[in-house]
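@here heads up, posting the sequence + SMILES for the thiamine diphosphate run so it's all in one place. Ping me if the SMILES looks off, I pulled it from an old spreadsheet.
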Amino acid sequence: MDMSSPEQLIKQLDIDEQETAEWIAALHSVLESAGPDRARFLLSQLSNAAREAGLQWRDARITPYINTIRPQDEAPYPGGSDAVATEETIAGILRWNALAMVVRANRAYGELGGHIASYASAADLFEVGFNHFFRARTPEFGGDLVYFQPHSAPGIYARAFLEGRLSADSLAHYRQEISANARGVQGLSSYPHPWLMPDFWQFPTGSMGIGPISAIYQARFMRYLEHRQLLAPQPRKVWGVFGDGEMDEPESLAALSLASREKLDNLVFVINCNLQRLDGPVRGNGHIVDELETLFGGAGWNVIKLLWGSDWDPLFARDANGELVDALNRTVDGQLQTFAANDGPFNREHFFGQSPGLQAIGATLTDEEIDRLKRGGHDLRKIYAAYHAAANHNGAPTVILAQTKKGFGMGTAGQGKMTTHQQKKLEQQDLLEFRNRFKLPLTDAQVENLEFYKPADDSPEMRHLHARRNELGGFMPRRVDQRLTMAVPQLESHAQFALEADGKEMSTTMALVRMMGNLLKDATLGKHVVPIVADEARTFGMANLFKTVGIYSSQGQLYQPEDIGSILYYREAKDGQILEEGITEAGAISSWTAAATSYAVHGLPMLPFYIYYSMFGFQRIGDLIWAAADQRARGFLIGATSGRTTLGGEGLQHQDGSSHLVSASIPNCISYDPAYAYELAVIVDDGMQRMLQKNEDVFYYVTVTNENEAQPSMPKDAREGILRGMHCVSPTKKPEVRLLGAGPLLKEAMAAADLLEGIFSVKTEVWSVTSFSELARDGIACERNRRLQQSDDEAWVTKKLKGSKAPVIAVSDYVRAVPETIRAYVPAHFVTLGTDGFGRSDTRASLRDFFEVDAKWIAYTALAEVYAGKKTADEMREIAAKLELGLDKPISTSV
Ligand SMILES: Cc1ncc(C[n+]2csc(CCOP(=O)(O)OP(=O)(O)O)c2C)c(N)n1
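bot reply: prediction finished. Complex structure tokens:
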């Protein structure tokens, strides 16, 4: 036997057992006579005294491998044994339907995939929630919010089937959304996807780690809305049911301390610790539960271990000298999995056979009883007690570490097997055993045919199920979009300065912040604006907002800020409006998503602006943005200090040349790279109208830069072009070359035009491209319409450029692939320039020369096209020399 476990060492170290017993007796006596507060006080005094004596003693933060809640402290089950029995029957039926759904789909099409084992382990955890805790949104109550473990989705569909919300036909179309649609049936998405099932799923969780961090920021955002008096305070909860494997993701753990710092007792995590992930145990040599206990406990969460079912209680009661607890402490996860995968006799021999004391405990049970010993996460009473304690805990978030068996009930085919995660086919014998195990009233033939089972409407199970959901306000999950509209202020009211800039110098970042400041003052919209930063407000010139609208802090401001005397001091307030997230882009985007989906989640439209270094957006947290898109987010993402060359000194890791490539791949993300403040004004106005008034499920990605420029006033009739993606800013009759400049490089294109006209007398026209991706989308749609509908649709870019055959040169501060997306729709010879390669730290001028995107390089490229076939190589070298360009320099992507 391994004697190196902490408990064994303690036993060996106990040189005076009688003294130990006296100390413990003293503690018990205080508890009895003076109560738990006094006992806790004395323990902390002891701990202080130990520290003062230099003992360096610290609580190990790991409690024994048993339930945190003692049997005598368990809240009783509402409805008693009858309710438990009925709910167990319901859980069995749900398990069957979920299993049948996956196995049926895979019998028909082996490629569809799906999971059985995860829900089999999580079913009871979900069911106690559904029957007793998860409260739906009603006209009076905002409702609880639940983040569902993604690959348990079949179980949630199975429940909706019993509830009458999904038909058997839908269940038969699990993971066959397209063919279902063609037949007029609601198909079922693989995982929770609000984009695909907008009346059903609220929160996308399919990518591991996104659910946990989103749940934390959602709970925090609910507090924000309450503290700002936008939502009435209500005892709503955010529940998150996640896998133990999912906790490996950095995002899962990233915001734990935020949750405790903010005292989010409206938040409960239930972690389904089936001790297995996809490949196997992965943490098999230790206890994932203990690891998570130290992490969550250390971060300040209330931790509830829910490890063993009620049938273990008498065994622990018999465990006078702690042998059973010792054995559990010692048994690592990989071994616990092996016990789960094997039967009663195996467990008797290998677990209870470890010592005479354990043998004696085991002897009180039959093999069958040993086989059926439940883990905590499969015992409705224990789960209820844990949820009850969590729901009533004040001052901190709670995590319930619920131990389960992966593939529970899947018998020798799946329970506790290494391969169970991927199992989607079961042999007839395994199916029959499953039916017997959960006492399902199905004939062998029904089992063979994998028939879905729904009890009669007047059966005790169905009556109970409906009564419970009625009591809890209705069915869940359910997503509601009430199509609320919000008045958008007149463009002139907040952006006149940009529309009539008249050459005034400013950067587009400054313009954006000024517009946002004005919107914040708007009588109707103002309080719905949510400025979000990840410790970069000063970088973007937003510090004035600290004073004017304040930084949200649930505690107000408990200190006198150093700059209190200044008019723009660092002001924190309980009703502060700015979400200052600190250096966590993942956290900030989670806040943004919570705000951007508030219209559906809370029936309260908000308008978030998350302003960040553009490099740390799509590149760093792209998957969270993708999930926000799935969730039908509406708001602005502002990629500031954007582009590869405008953030001169910052170098390789900070300079963004790709965000517009990624953003273009998100169907409901509308991206713009404006050059001028007036373009920005029009884009923001359009975004607000589409999102807040027309209820379109789109969000805007807008890049702004910190380069001060003389801003022109808006030309007449420019609006449509700005929004469709390009408009002419320097028209020329009969141009010999056309330049398309985007964002910060429009200025270089304009300067190139001056060179071309001034030195080389080449007539040049310049266009501002506000969005290559919108031009490309339009082009794709028109091209397809021509092909499929024989329409004469013409893309905007084609329409605008078709009047001439002059070559077109496009330049942006992004990789060439961005302008390349419009090539098919440009009706002339087309050349693209871009910033491919790693960034460097240097001045903007040097960088633009390095990437060959400055005025001289644009001019040279234009001349190379205009003079193609007309000038010799030597003549072209002379032209380059005139422009002071070295033609032998290495390409910017060279390695
Ligand atoms: C970001 C990401 N990486 C990988 C996956 C693939 N994946 C889906 S479920 C799973 C294992 C999950 O294990 P666990 O969280 O323990 O849940 P269980 O199925 O055991 O209940 C993996 C690796 C994913 N969905 N998302």
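MO: The first helix runs from residue 6 to 13.
MO: One more: Residues 1-7 have pLDDT under 50 and may be disordered.
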